[in-house]
Amino acid sequence: MTERLADAGLRAIDEKRRAGERLSLEDGIRLFACRDLLALGALANREREARHGARAFFNYNLRLEATNVCVASCLFCSFARLRPGDPGAYTLSLEEAWDKLRARAHQPLTEVHIVNGLHPDLPFSYYTDLLRGFKRIRPDIHLKCFTAVEIAFFADLYDMSDEQVLRELIAAGLDSLPGGGAEIFAERVRRKICHDKCGTDRYLDIHRAAHRLGLRTNVTMLYGHIETMEERVDHMLRCRALQDETGGFQAFIPLAFHPDNNQMRKLPAPTAADTLRVHAVARLMLDNIPHVKAFWIATGVDVAQMALWFGADDLDGTVQEEKIYHMAGSDTPQAMTTAEISRLVRQAGREPLERDTLYRVVDATPAAAPAAL
Ligand code: V47
User: Fold this and answer.
1) CB within 6 Å of ligand 1 — which residues?
2) Which pLDDT band holds residue 1 (cuts at 50, 70, 90)?
3) What's the longest Cα–Cα distance across the chain?
4) How far is the CA of 291 from the centre of ligand 1 (A)?
5) If you write DSSP's letter for every residue of 341-367 in order, what string do you get?
6) For the whole prediction, is pTM greater than 0.90?
7) pLDDT of res. 2
8) Atom 14 of ligand 1, nearest CA residue
9) Cα(179) to centroid of ligand 1, in Å?
10) pLDDT above 90 as % of the chain
11) How far apart are CA 283 and CA 280, in angstroms?
């Protein structure tokens, strides 16, 4: 292996990591430029196994998008509709949203993950009531809700500080923040693909404030569109810097760009090789973030399995009602059962572990669906 790493131009990086040294921007760029995908994967896998052994985490969750009405005009988005009443626009009533959870009373769900459009006309009480209602229905459910972009939007719309918004949502039952809305932190890219929503500094500030208030959060990176390799590494380094400060990130989640039905549809989708590379580089650069998640809806199921050997240790969860990726062309199933996820993990040569949102063990040996051989 040492020889192969040297041939791949990765000897210095290998030595740095063996000595516990941090990788630099230049190292990250070198990793992306490496042609030997398996050598890169082996380096990332070493880091992954040192942290998590053979375990691969997932949870039993439900995804909910309460509205797709959104005043932002992100070029990559296939989900948003500008105004209520536009074709395809929807906003769930509180009862309709709560019914989604009531209808799953038989499922041992541990998390509801909510992401919405930026709706200009709803009162703030819609969101606090939404959370309170979910907790009334299932007091033990973990509510991972609202991206930092939504928090910033609420603060501006309802004339509050970001921290005040977080405090009120926490009082209503918010337990953690998902990582959406990060896209790519570099100004050049943000100006082009998502110029009219919360910028990088505010996104990171909101996560900083959330961590200070005791919430754990995730952070994402949308890749495979107009960003450069340097901008990807820069994005990772900004996550690493905030994590040094707060320690509040649980997982880094690379999100593969899906080009259907949006304004960037002329671009090709990222390839499987690129997806594996991004997960591997993330694992190597982000020495202080515990988990790298391969979100199977974004990567595709087959690539998510392989990513478990390229730095990823988490697959997200059962998901069940995802819209953002399916409207952008994802051909993954709408949901997987815990038995199906466990089977995929076992078939990939890893050991499934059902976790809750905070990575506490729910089931250390989940049953797998029978393999169809
Ligand atoms: O912020 C939107 C992305 C994100 C497209 O925190 C697109 O555990 C690709 O953040 N192609 C929302 N991506 C989803 C998200 C997420 C997913 C899974 C787990 C967690 C977590 C968070 O989806 C958006 C945006 O970056 N997105 N449109 C598209 N066409």
Assistant:
1) 76-78, 115, 147, 178-181, 183, 218, 220, 222, 253, 255, 257-258, 262, 295, 316, 324, 328
2) confident
3) 62
4) 17
5) HHHHHHHTT-EEEEE-TT--EEESSPP
6) yes
7) 86
8) 180
9) 8
10) 98
11) 5
Question: Domain 2-8+29-361 belongs to what topology?
Answer: TIM Barrel (3.20.20)
Reading the block at residue 319, the tokens are 């998901």
CA 244 centroid distance within chain: 20
Whether 371 shows a pLDDT value over 90: the answer reads: no
Identify the residue whose C-alpha is closest to ligand 1 atom 18. Answer: 295
Distance CA 344, CA 296 (A): 11
Q: How open is the CA angle 256-14-31, to the nearest 5 degrees?
A: 30
Rounded alpha-carbon distances, angstroms, from residue 145 to 217, 337, 357: 10, 22, 12
Using the structure block, give the residue that is written with the tokens 């190597």.
Answer: 284
Does the pLDDT value for residue 372 go beyond 70? no
Nearest to 24 by CA among 337, 236, 263, 212: 236
**Residue owning tokens 């009082």:** 171
Which pair of tokens denotes residue 146? 């609202």
DSSP 243-301: HHHH--EEEEEEEE---TTSTTTTSPPPPHHHHHHHHHHHHHH-TT-SEEB--HHHH-H
Token pair for residue 46?
């070493």
Question: Do 189 and 223 meet the contact criterion of CB atoms below 8 Å apart?
Answer: no
Q: What one-character DSSP code corresponds to residue 21?
A: P
For the stretch 201-254, pLDDT in tens is 999 999 999 999 999 999 999 999 999 999 999 999 999 999 999 999 999 999
Domain ranges of the chain: 2-8+29-361
Q: Pick from 235, 324, 332 the residue to mutate for probing ligand 1's pocket: most ligand atoms within 8 Å of its CB.
A: 324
| pLDDT tens-place string over residues 156-187 | 999 999 999 999 999 999 999 999 999 999 99
- Report the alpha-carbon distance of residue 357 to residue 130 in Å, rounded: 19
pLDDT at 373 over 60: no
Which ligand 1 atom minimizes the distance to the CA of 298? 9
**Residue 228 corresponds to which amino acid?**
T
What whole-number percentage of the chain has pLDDT above 70? 99
| Residue type at position 289 | I
- CA distance linking residue 216 with residue 176, whole number of Å: 5
